[in-house]
Amino acid sequence: MKLFDPHVHMTSRTTDDYAAMAAAGIAAVIEPAFWLGQPRTHVGSFEDYFLSLVGWERFRARQFGIRHFCTLAINPKEANDPALVEGVLELLPRYLEKDGVVGVGEIGYDDMTAAEEGAFERQVVMAAKHDLIVLVHTPHRDKRRGTERSLDLIRNLDFPVERVLIDHNNEETLPMVLDSGCWAGHSIYPNTKMDEARMVTLVQRYGVERIIINSAADWGVSDPLKVPKTASAMRVAGIPEHDIETIVWENPICFFSTGGRLDRSDLESAAAVDQRELWQGNSVLRGQEPRVGR
Ligand SMILES: [Zn+2]
Q: Residue 234, exposed/middle/buried by CB under 10 A (0-12, 13-18, 19+)?
């Protein structure tokens, strides 16, 4: 079974992670633009980051047989810096048209400030203009309120709900997200928030429609193999193979191909690996024997 991890920050991960993910069946990833652990102080840092997401990182994934797509945005945390917001929103339209960009994200609320709301709103409008989906991050503190406010904002802007993925759901927020018509993402973390067993229970209770899971792995304590691990937990719990496949493959393809930037037939064919390839003269290898083939 092919798997899709539709929220993983590969820039923060190693080639060992890529190799392990490919071996576990992960054939495609979405890398949302996010914050880097400390605030950036120049708009140019965002531009270089966007360039790496559509360039080097995409190449690096392909070197391990994984298709890489991204969503671009100014994230909620850094949306609190007015100078950055203006500069990043000015350059974003150009980058939203690049190959491999399938949406706007992650956007949303962190501390639920007016500045975050302004950037959130403007980026949803931008997604509509570029015919893209949006990936909405929900806050870790006061998640219920943050989710309600996110759904209100989407409704007030009349943005189509079938183009919205509300992420990092839990037992408390999932029912309202499903009722809204938006897609519901779940980030499976080690020892906190949502885990494999709780995810199994949610699937048994709510079914598979519009349900998506991801690892949200980044530079923090996280695990890029959480999608395959959760698929295994579902299998052990007796969830039918067809339902597991819907969650880990069909649903992300269906959602992220909405804007026509992700081609299902390309994803379904095996990715050819040729580690002799270079990206702007650079290789992922350090003198090792290149792997060539499937
Ligand atoms: Zn994230």
A: buried
d(CA 24, CA 12): 19
pLDDT tens per residue across all 294 residues of the chain: 999 999 999 999 999 999 999 999 999 999 999 999 999 999 999 999 999 999 999 999 999 999 999 999 999 999 999 999 999 999 999 999 999 999 999 999 999 999 999 999 999 999 999 999 999 999 988 999 999 999 999 999 999 999 999 999 999 999 999 999 999 999 999 987 799 999 999 999 999 999 999 999 999 999 999 999 999 999 999 999 999 999 999 999 999 999 889 999 889 888 889 999 999 999 999 989 999 986
CA of 293 to the centre of ligand 1 (A): 32
Residues with Cβ within 8 Å of 241's Cβ and at least 6 positions away in sequence, in order, are 1, 235
Q: How far does the centroid of ligand 1 lie from the alpha carbon of residue 178, in Å? A: 21
Q: Which pTM does this prediction carry?
A: 0.96
Which residues contact residue 45 at a Cβ distance below 8 angstroms, ignoring those fewer than 6 apart? none
Distance 217 CA to ligand 1 centre (A): 7
* Span from the CA of 46 to the centroid of ligand 1 (angstroms): 16
Ligand 1 mean position to 106 CA, how many Å?
7
Distance 70 CA to ligand 1 centre (A): 11
